[in-house]
TrEMBL record:
Protein known as: FAST kinase domains 2
Superkingdom as given in the UniProt entry: Eukaryota
Database matches in Pfam families: FAST_1 (PF06743), RAP (PF08373), RESC6 (PF26188)
Natural source organism: Cyprinus carpio
Entry keywords, A to Z: Mitochondrion
Keyword Mitochondrion: yes
Subcellular location as annotated: Mitochondrion
Entry keyword Mitochondrion: yes
Amino acid sequence: MSMYKSGLDMLRCALRSTSLWKCDSFILTQTSLCYKSRSFAVSSQLERKSTQGHTLKQARYYCQSAEDVQIKQTAASTETNELPDKVEKAPFYTHLQNCLCPTDVLDTLKKFPASQQHVSSIFSRMWESSKRMTDEQRRCELQLMFEHPLFEQVCERAMTEAWRMRSEDLAYSLLASVNLGVSQNTRLVQTLLRVVQERLNQFDIRSLSVLASCIREMENSRNVQALREALRLLLKDRIPEIQSVVFLQSMMRAVGKNSPILLKKQLATKALSLADEFSPPNTQYMFSSLAAMGLNFKPLLDVCSKKIAENVHEFPFGRLLSVLKSCHELHYRNYTLFSSISEYVANTFDMWSNKQVILLLVTFENLSFRPVILLDAFAERIIQRSNSLTLKDLLSVLKIFSLLNHDLKEKKTEFLASVTMVLESYLPKLPPTDLLKAVHYLGLLEHFPRAPLEKLLQKDTLDQLLQKAKQLDKIQRWLHTLDLFLRLDKPRLPPSLTSVPELHITVPAHEVKVNQEVLSAVRSIVGTDALQDNVLEQSIYLIDCVITLPHQTEETSALSAEECARRIAVFCAPPTSFCFGTTHPRASLAIKLRHLEKLGYKPVVVPVLELNSKTEEEKIELLQKLIFPAQEPTGTQEIPNNRPKAE
């Protein structure tokens, strides 16, 4: 009985038996290769190709994200840097170094026919030369490359020599051909994939890193998925050999989110052991590498956050934005990291355009972080240069300031006047949905400009929105909030309206259960007669319990009029109701507080996070201070902990 030396050998045998590496039948019956770049199909070219019996395949171009540039540049530069060592051995490499575009490389082959050792260098040089071009230049050069008569010969030679190539040359040839836009369904790519799979055990760490970068660029076909699984099996035994941070990050990106959690943690633990060697770019790429695996590995993220916070001035804008987006994807929060980025941008504010600042603030809002200094600086710029805002910018600005419930204090009036002026300039061409969105955000800031409100409340506009609300829950909720604004905030209506229009919008309340611990603690304070639990106001505002106080009596005569309010609404607020690291309420909580006051309640907010960390006696004492603050000693009435903290 034959024995398998490793799990990889077993997988390879299974792959052979299931024929996963065979191309589709119509690809296998091709008599020749054909490569076609995107949008280069010319009718005459099609006719010529069909008469020659060639089957055209559309090539795909894989764009490089900012996070991948370091790994790809390392792979390409490693191959290119080997050329000077070879120059003395053959004049071919001297000419190859002087080629500035893919067609120059192919023209060189007329003088120096490609040998087995040249194939990988040819593909890598074509890819390297195309990376330095603009998008339009690259498009034209790749068109010429695909149409060059020698390109097909190079591809044929690559297939022929693939079985005799070194592992490193195989990996570079596959990576370069994919990034040049060669279709994944062509015989060239399929042949390289099969040879790679056959010889995967022979790959060293560098070759595996290049292969990992290539796999991330390829479509998730059966062949690629099988190779990815084989790479995962191999990595389990090879992780201790990895000593390069860049190579390790390439592996982390390649294994993907569907890999076993044990493998992910092994890679992250290995990265943590190399943390002392991290350069500033390494720390940023580690965020995106962990995001590519879908692993929130807090010890590693904390180390990287500290390094970025200490050297934030060394990072360009794109990398800082990438870090924040990775934090959002990983559900990771770090107050020190967020503060350092926001303060750096605020201190160098004149360097950044409106677009950059808005992108950063939108990401901060997604993270529930309120960068106070940066928001104040941006508000000042808007007041001075409001005309520079596009409609998209305006809607983003309104969303950021309203959802973060940012208080501009004495600048609020000027800010609202500026954004209102910009909004009114776009009114003639503003779609109903955007108009509703803008009025909604302004309403959260308790500002109701007449012109936008008048246009929104026109019958035709409301009819269109009510029709859309049947398909979109978000519009339905916005209309319901608009109805609350009109009935509770009671803004001045346009002259054309004599009464508040009936919108007849009802939305299901959020499925939030009453906090029984709070209910029990409140009962021990005020008794059961004065307590009503599980109260729902306006079909949307859940109150855990309402305390109904009697009018002035001997027991309450010592309290001020505010404490003698007839109804006290006590409700719990989860951490998501506050801006991260503080107890500053976000929009949903702020509007609930405002409207409950309009309805005659004295709202009392109980932070759930603060409550969960206390004993039963401490909970009662906490609620006693919140509900009746005048009864506690001076200086101890502040319940929530405003101290910034990191998760």
